[in-house]
Write a structure and sequence with these properties.
By secondary structure, the chain is α/β, with parallel strands linked by helices. The chain contains 8 helices and 10 strands. The mean pLDDT is 97.
Length: 304
Amino acid sequence: MQPPFYPIGTPGVPWGDAEIAAWLARQRRRRSYADEVLSEIERLLGRFDVVPYGRLDYAPDVYPLFALRSRDWQPARPVALVTGGVHGYETSGVHGALRFAERHAADYTGRLDLMIVPCVSPWGYERIHRWNPLALDPNRSFHPGSRAPESAALLALVAPFADRVRVHIDLHETTDTDESEFRPALAARDGRSFSPGGIPDGFYLVDDTEAPQPAFQDAVIRAVSKVTHIAPADAQGEIIGSPVVAPGVIRYDLRSLGLCAGITDAPYRTTTEVYPDSPRATPEQCNAAQAAAVCAALDYALEH
């Protein structure tokens, strides 16, 4: 049976301005970036330098962008970069980054300079959406001259210290709405047919095809397995269409795809994915899994 076509656009025809406007008119604010994210950043003022690195002007809304930086930032030290909320709807990416900042960051004082960017895409956070208002996916937009303001702002923030980044962990989720909403919308936007797939039940990582670090990925998987379950391969030996190269690990070409985890040449890079819709996981567990992944990544980078 052929899946129904997305309700915006014409099958086989990429969207133009009219279709993007029709899609945008359907989006509604469902939670507050100020109440749920900025308030948490404010609570951490005594522990970090809070760095404003831009603002998103999406009339009538304006979103200030903030990062948390080590107060004893030293240009001679390696940097650990933690990013969350590149896809704003992926809640534990945001709150996992904040949880790490609040509960674990002090353990790395004097050993690494920390730059924590909890919510790269606040418009998407408020609307629980993958895209920005331009119908662009920020996590396919990390390249020079990016048309996604969220991605361009993060690239500008990181540029002055990019050569010092030793480890970068980018926190994501794979949700049921990937299959029910976001993949069909992507296919419609690009004028392609939608082929239904599956959603992996559990945590997994995305390594870099061009510079794989299997021992690093394994260290993160082992740490997270103490908090939540690891996604198994499907019957084809894959997770979301990519071959499983080790338990809970697949690989993408991070840079060519414009993914956040590819914005530096850090030797240790990964993208986390948790499954918040699993009957075997809770929001608390997802946040804890993200924080555990960050700690394991930083510990490995310090030891090697």
